[in-house]
Design brief:
Blueprint: H1 3-13, H2 17-22, H3 48-65, H4 69-89, H5 91-103, H6 112-140, H7 146-174, H8 217-229, H9 234-257, H10 259-275, H11 278-291, H12 293-307, H13 312-315, H14 324-337
Helix pairs in contact: 1-3, 1-7, 3-4, 4-6, 4-10, 5-6, 6-7, 8-9, 9-12, 10-11
Length: 373
C-alpha cells in the first residue's frame, strides 16, 4: 500500500478536531499542513467549510476502502453529522485552539506562554475527539465487507499510535517544550498496511441497514452441508433438495410480503447508526428480529424434515442439537456488529454457549445468521 495514502488515511480517521486541523489532501498527493486560508475561523461550525473538509476526507476514505456508492453516501452523511455535532458541542473550547494552531501552521509557537496555553487547552480536546472517533468507527465498520474490515482493523491500530503521539506532542507543549515536528504529523515507523480491498457488491456487504430482504443462502448452505455430513444417497439427496426448494420458496414469499416493513426498519437503523443513537439502533434490530421470526420457524421445520430422511445408522451422527442453531445465530450477529478488536468498551460480554456440540451446524455468513430453533 502507498505509504502516503496510508498516512492520509490515518489523518481522515481523526474525524473531528484532527479532521479540521490536519487537512485532507487528494489521495495521490503528499500530505501537507492545512493552509490558514482553508478555514475561516470567524465562521460558525455549521458552514460550508466543515462540509468541504468532510467531503475531501470522504473522498480519501472512498479510495482507501474502495467504497461503493451506497457506502460512500452513508459515510458522508455520518461524518458531516458527527463532525458538526462534535464541533458545535465543544465550540467554545475548539475554535481558540484552532486559531492558535493555524496561526503557527501546526508547528510549535516560538512564544513559550502561547505554546503552553495551546498545549493545555488542546490536550483534553484531543482525548474527547478520540472517544468520539472510536465510537463513530465502531458504528461505521458495520457497513464494511470482511475485506474492508481487515483494512479497518489495521487503520484503527495505527490511529491508536497517532493519538498517542498527538497526546505526547500536546503534553510537551503544555510543559513548555517544543518538539520540531507538526503536531499532527504521522507517527514514526508506521507499519505496512493491507492491500486495497475489492469494491464490495451484493452478498459481500452486511450494509448499514438491516437488509430489506433476508438473504436465504443459509438454507442452501445448511442443506448441502447436511447432505455431505450424513452421507446421503442419491434418493435422500433428491428429497433433501426438494425440501430445500419448497421451504426456501416459502421464506422468499414471506420476505417479499414484508418488503415495506423491512425497508422502514432499514431506514430507522441507518439513521441510528449515522447519529450514534444506540437505543434506536437496538430498537430497530429488535423489530427486525421479531419480523423475521417466521423465517426462523421455517428453518427449524426444514431441519426436522431433513433429519426424518436419515436411517438409524445415519442418525447416530446427529449432535445434541439443543441451543446449537441459536448459539450460531448469536455468534454470527456478534461478528456482524462487532467493532475493531478491543475498541468498544461499552459492548456487553458475550454469553458463552451452555454446551459445546460434537459437530455444530454450519456457520452462516455474517449477513445470514440462521434462525434459532
Amino acid at each position: 500500500m502507498n505509504t502516503v495514502r496510508q498516512r492520509q488515511t490515518t489523518g481522515w480517521l481523526l474525524i473531528a478536531l484532527v479532521t479540521l486541523l490536519s487537512g485532507a489532501a487528494v489521495a495521490e498527493e503528499k500530505p501537507r499542513p492545512l493552509d490558514v486560508s482553508d478555514i475561516d475561523v470567524s465562521q460558525t461550525v455549521a458552514t460550508a467549510t466543515v462540509e468541504q473538509i468532510c467531503e475531501k476526507a470522504v473522498r480519501n476514505i472512498s479510495i482507501r476502502y474502495n467504497l461503493n456508492d451506497e457506502q460512500t453516501e452513508f459515510t458522508m452523511r455520518m461524518m458531516k453529522f458527527r463532525v458538526t455535532k462534535f464541533l458545535k458541542d465543544h465550540e467554545e473550547e475548539i475554535w481558540p485552539v484552532i486559531r492558535g494552531l493555524l496561526k503557527n501552521k501546526l508547528m510549535p509557537p516560538e512564544d513559550v506562554a502561547e505554546l503552553t496555553r495551546i498545549g493545555k487547552a488542546a490536550r483534553p480536546l484531543a482525548e474527547l475527539a478520540k472517544r468520539e472517533i472510536f465510537d463513530a468507527n465502531a458504528e461505521w465498520r458495520k457497513i464494511l465487507s470482511d475485506q474492508q474490515k481487515a483494512v479497518h482493523d489495521f487503520d484503527m491500530a495505527e490511529m491508536e499510535k497517532t493519538f498517542q503521539q498527538v497526546d505526547e506532542n500536546f503534553g510537551a507543549w503544555e510543559a513548555g517544550k517544543a518538539p520540531d515536528r507538526p503536531i499532527f504529523g504521522p507517527p514514526q515507523g508506521m507499519a505496512q498496511g493491507p492491500t486495497r480491498p475489492p469494491k464490495p457488491t451484493g452478498d459481500d456487504l452486511p450494509g448499514p441497514e438491516l437488509a430489506r430482504g433476508i438473504k436465504l443462502t443459509i438454507f442452501d448452505t445448511f442443506v448441502e452441508e447436511f447432505i455431505k455430513d450424513h452421507g446421503l444417497d442419491a434418493a435422500q439427496t433428491e428429497a433433501a433438495r426438494s425440501i430445500l426448494k419448497e421451504v426456501k420458496g416459502q421464506a422468499k414469499d414471506y420476505t417479499s410480503s414484508k418488503e415495506k416493513e423491512l425497508s422502514e426498519i432499514e431506514s430507522k437503523h441507518k439513521e441510528a447508526l449515522i447519529k450514534g443513537n444506540h437505543e434506536r439502533r437496538t430498537e430497530a434490530e429488535g423489530e427486525r428480529q421479531k419480523l423475521i421470526q417466521p423465517i426462523y420457524a421455517l428453518f427449524a421445520q426444514m431441519q426436522s424434515r431433513l433429519e426424518a430422511l436419515l436411517t438409524s445408522k445415519q442418525r447416530e451422527s446427529l449432535p445434541d442439537k439443543e441451543g446449537i442453531v441459536a448459539e450460531s445465530a448469536k455468534q454470527a450477529d456478534n461478528e456482524r456488529t462487532s467493532p475493531p478488536p478491543g475498541k468498544d468498551k461499552t459492548a456487553s460480554a458475550q454469553t458463552p454457549p451452555k454446551e459445546q456440540p460434537k459437530k455444530p451446524a454450519p456457520q452462516p455468513t455474517t449477513e445470514d445468521p440462521p434462525p434459532p430453533e
